[in-house]
Amino acid sequence: MRQGWRWFGPEAPVTLDEVRQTGATNIVSSLHQVPIGRAWTEAEVRERQAMIETTPPGRSRLTWSVVESIPIPDAVKRNGGRAKAEIEAWIASLEAVAACGIAIVCYNFMPVVDWTRTELDHVIDTGATAMRFDHEKFAAFDLFVLRRVGAEQQYSREDLTRARQVFDAMSETDIAEITRIITSALPGSTTEPLTIPQFRERLAAYAGIDAGKLRQHLIEFLKAVTPAAEARGVKLTLHPDDPPRSLFGLPRIASTANDYAALFEAVPSEANGMCYCTGSLGVRADNDLPAIARRFASRIHFAHLRATKREGDGRTFHESAHLEGDVDMVAVLRELVAEDSRRRSNETIVFRSDHGHRMLDDLNKNVTPGYPAIGRLRGLAELRGILYALGAQPT
C-alpha cells in the first residue's frame, strides 16, 4: 500500500519538505484554484506536477498519484446527462490528468454541500481539538438560521424543542460561526461557498429530485465519463457522503454498501471504483466496514483512513484518534492488505491518514481545518505500525 498525504498546494501551511518528514511518498492534490466547472489544461496539471515531483538535491522523491478532486458542477447533479457542456469540461480535465500519468481520480456527488461539520475545534479530553458534527446545532441552524422551507416536517417534536433551546442559547458570534462553517465550504470541498439567500436558492433548485433521480443522474454521468477513463487507464473513485445521510432534505446516494452496489451494477466498468473512507462510512452503525472492504475490494483504489466516534443516538459524532472510535482499523487494514497483495506494484492502493486532531504545536499555528500536520502524522504512524504488524511494508 502506498502512503499518501493530502497537500493543498503552495499556499498550504504544510510544505512538501514537511510531507517528506512524515514518511509519506504519494501526494494527493488538486487544482483548487480552478473555478468549478472550468476544464483543467494539461499545462496547469503539469505545473502542479512539476512542483510536487521536482526533487531538490538530497531530498526523497514525491509522486502525485491521486487527484482529489475534479469537482462535479451542480448542474450535473441536477440534470444528469443533459448537462452536456459541464460533462465535456469534466472529461477534458480527466484527459489533462491522464496525459500527465496520474491514474486515480477521486470525486463525490453530494448536492449543494460537501462534507459538513458544525465545529472545527471541539476540545477533547486530551486537550487537543477535533472536528465535530452536533445534530442539535445542525438542526438549530437548519430551522432557525437558514429557515429552510419545510424543515420542521423532517424533525421529531423532541428535535424541534431541543433545537429551539440550542438556538436561543446561541450568541450572535455563535450564529455567525456555525453559518461560516456550514456555508463557506470546508477545505477540499467541491461545492461553492454560499450566502444564506444563495443557499436557499440552491436547495430550491433540487425540488423534485429524490434519491432515485440523483442516483440516475450519477449513473448518466458515469456512463458518459467512464469510457474516457477506461481508455486512458484512469480509475475513478467515488467518495462516500459525509455524513452518510440526508442533510437539508437533500438525497444522498453514496452512504451504504447497497448504494455502491447499485452503481457498480449499473456501470460495471473496472474504471468505476470507490474511495473507501472509513470515517464517512463509519458514522453509520449499520455499515460493516471490513465487510464493505471485502465485498468491493477490487473496486478500492484509494482509501481515506480515519475514525469517528458516534455520540448519543449516533446522529452526533466527532473525529476520534485513528485507532479509537467506532472503526476497527486493524480489521479494515487486514482486508485492504489482502487485496493489495494481489495487485501489481503500480496498481496498489493509495491510502492517507485522513483528518487528524489539532494537537501539540499545531494548537498555536494557523492550520487547515481537518488537516493539521501533527495529528495526521500521528495517524499515519499508527496506520504504518498496523501494516508492518500485518506483514505488509508500506511504500
- Give the helix tally: 14
The CATH class name reads Alpha Beta
Main sheet makeup: 8 strands, parallel, barrel
Helix content: 25-40%
**CATH fold name:** TIM Barrel
Sequence stretches where pLDDT stays below 50 over 5 or more residues: none
How many angstroms separate the termini? 6 Å
Q: How are the strands of the biggest sheet laid out side by side? A: 1-2-3-4-7-8-9-12
Order of helices and strands: EHEHEHHEEEHHHHHEHEHHEEEHEH
Q: CATH H-level name... which superfamily?
A: Divalent-metal-dependent TIM barrel enzymes
- Just name the CATH architecture: Alpha-Beta Barrel
What is the number of strand segments?
Answer: 12
Q: What is the approximate shape?
A: globular
The rounded Rg comes to 20 Å
Q: What's the overall average pLDDT, rounded?
A: 96
Commentary on this structure:
Catalyzes the dehydration of D-mannonate. One of its GO terms (biological process) is D-glucuronate catabolic process. Pathway: Carbohydrate metabolism; pentose and glucuronate interconversion. InterPro entries: Man_deHydtase (IPR004628), Xyl_isomerase-like_sf (IPR036237). With 395 residues, this protein is an alpha/beta fold. It has a single domain, classed as TIM Barrel, CATH 3.20.20.150. 40% of the residues lie in helices and 15% in strands. The chain contains 14 helices and twelve strands. α1 links the parallel β1 and β2. The radius of gyration is 20 Å and the shape is globular.
